[in-house]
Amino acid sequence: MKTRDNIVGRYALFLIGLFIASLGVAFSTKAGLGTSPVASVPYSVSLVSSLLSFGGWLNLLSVIQIAIQVILLKGKCNYLEIVIQTILAFVYGYLTNFSCSLIEGLEVNSYLWQLFYLAVSCVVLAFGLWLQFKGGVAMLPGEAMNRAISQVTGKKYENIKIFFDIFYIVVAAAICLICLGKLEGVREGSIIAAVVIGNIIKLYNKAFDKIIICLGKGKAE
User: What is the DSSP string of 42-58?
Assistant: First the structure.
């Protein structure tokens, strides 16, 4: 029973993190200074085509990333994990649309407001990612695809991630420049987010460790 409760609790924590992360992405679109690398391509396409929503294009990218995993891993593929990834990907797409609708009424009147919403986006997105990491039960398709490529090629996961982050930004920039004549999905905010989010997550880890240490001392006393 304890094991089952633990798994349920971890999935609940992961889903809460997923929602908070989607809210962070929504704030980045509100800021209008560029989204995170993984979201940049779906967001750029959503600016060009109304065929699908931002969340819908995010879902399509997730399906492609899942298909790449299946093709690469073949017989070694964990199909239960693939099913979980697919469900979570579509949940994330829905949550992204929902989060965007939640803050739709917020006004952006100046570049300072854009910077403010970008800062909020980084803090919120980092917290959502941190909660997902603490849940530790699943990976979203983009990260899982990077892991699969790393396993097959023998290249470091970090290097694969960096490559695809750059690839997504280049593709998103090309889409905006060709179709819109200007950068929308990728701007200075994309670079800022790439630099600071990881560091903010480190701060959350340090704060969490200090809280655990303080609680441990309190119980000892």
Answer: HHHHHHH--SS-HHHHH
pLDDT of residue 120: 95
Residues of the chain under the 70 pLDDT cut: 1-5, 216-221
The CB-side HSE value for 82 (13 A sphere, CA atoms) comes to 18
For residue range 15-36, what is the model confidence (pLDDT) as tens digits? Answer: 999 999 999 989 998 998 888 7
SS3 78: coil
At which residue do the structure tokens 């609790």 appear? Answer: 9
How far apart (Å, rounded) are the C-alpha atoms in residues 83 and 220? Answer: 44
List, in sequence order, the alpha helices (H) in the chain.
2-31, 37-48, 54-73, 79-102, 111-135, 141-153, 157-179, 188-220
Answer yes or no: are the C-beta atoms of 153 and 36 closer than 8 Å.
no
Distance of alpha carbon 25 from alpha carbon 29, whole angstroms: 6
Cβ-contact 33, 115 below 8 angstroms: yes
CA-CA-CA-CA torsion for 134, 136, 140, 145, nearest 10 degrees? Answer: 120
The number of residues making up the chain comes to 221
* DSSP structural state of residue 194: H
